[in-house]
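Researcher: Please translate sequence to structure tokens.
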Amino acid sequence: MANTLDDQVADAGDATAERLEALEQDLQKYRVSRDSWTFAIFGIAVLTAIASIIGIAFAVGDDDEGGSGAAAAAPLQADLSEFVITLSAGTMDVGGSIEVTNSGSQAHNLGVEGTDLLTPDIEPGGTATLDLSSLDAGTYTLYCDIAGHADSGMTTPLVIGGAEASAAATGHEDHAAMTPEQGAAMDQQMMESILAFPAESAGRGNQPLEPEVLADGTKRFELTASIVDWEVRPGEVVQAWAYNGMVPGPRIDLDVGDNVEVEVTNELPIGTDVHWHGIDVPNGQDGVAPLTQELISSGETYTYNFTVEEPAVSMYHAHAHAQDAVPNGMFGTIFVGEVPLPAGETVSGIEIPADIEIAQDFPMVLNDAGVIGLTLDGKSFPATAPIVATEGDWIQVSYYNEGLQVHPMHLHGFEQIVIAKDGEPLDHPYAADTVLVAPGERYTVIFNTSVPGTWVWHCHILNHVESSEGMFGMVTAVVVNEAV
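Model: Translation complete:
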């Protein structure tokens, strides 16, 4: 044989060795190529990361130069209600703003004390933005500018540019840190505010309006609506919307069966009308423009005519632009006849004399908004008028709520016997030391001044009567002198 088995094996081994050597060379080339590509890809990734960092640095630099870095942060949130300002945080960066939401039941606004920064009035459910970018770092007080609201508690501190919130920034006073000297100063301020009662102030509302009696017996009254200077409390003069220059407007007293004529002259800069709240009148005399009459334009006069056919404890007020006109002072009282008394009855253990005589009978008109603010009969304590009585007198008062929220009227010392609601006599009179009066309601009560002394009479929503500056607002007193 030309080739032995051994020769064939040797030839196969040589061929295998050659193939293995070639394969090793190919693998070496692959390793070099692979490592080169890995290095190239890694290098590209590193360069990309560096470029990204440089780009971010340039972006931040541009942001700072344009002054928009602070503005890019989410604005602070403020929620307004009766009578609280709630902030989402007590601190914010310089250059920020506040998104304001009114979740209350009446108009509010938000401003910064000591500046001209103030939102427009925000109706319930509305929103507004308060731009604070003009303010430097520091501590500021936010407040509601509507009359009486800040006094009722609508203030809160805000720290701008502060590193951390403090007790002051969150609106919570650190009473534990108060010194005895600071406490004594607060005590003195409160005592002085109370001892200032009663204080003189210009003007007095609820004055009786005498009618002109016409030939046919009609009682004719004249009302003029205008804007006047009104001293709510000593030194605080506001631009009130008034009838006949007083707040509340003049008291109108009628008898059942009277024919009534009321001539209304409008000296306001806008149109008006008069609604006779709680009196049954013909539809054409209801005072709701443009449904029952034309608007009484500025400078014009309009005459109402109606007959009163049943007893009433009623009020009159503007209906057009009422959200401004009424809180600002355009309201008054009307009494038709008399409310029957529970003579000879025993109410909650209190015996009512069969021959009961009322020593004083008067309205007490409640308000909480507009330029008049938190007031009784258009005045804020200490300018509210005290009720001076003699031991054993029976007093009758009719609460009128012309405000925008309820008021629990609390009388110290004596039970109030509620005898009528909205002028309607109650079948079952009841006694209460606190009577809750909602907007538009009237409650008539009587009480006996059985114990001498000075007895406080006030709304029991406590920030309607006291503030950090002392007593104010919806407070008066009954001064009972000993019987001789």
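Researcher: Any highlights?
Model: Residues 5-66 form the longest helix (62 residues).
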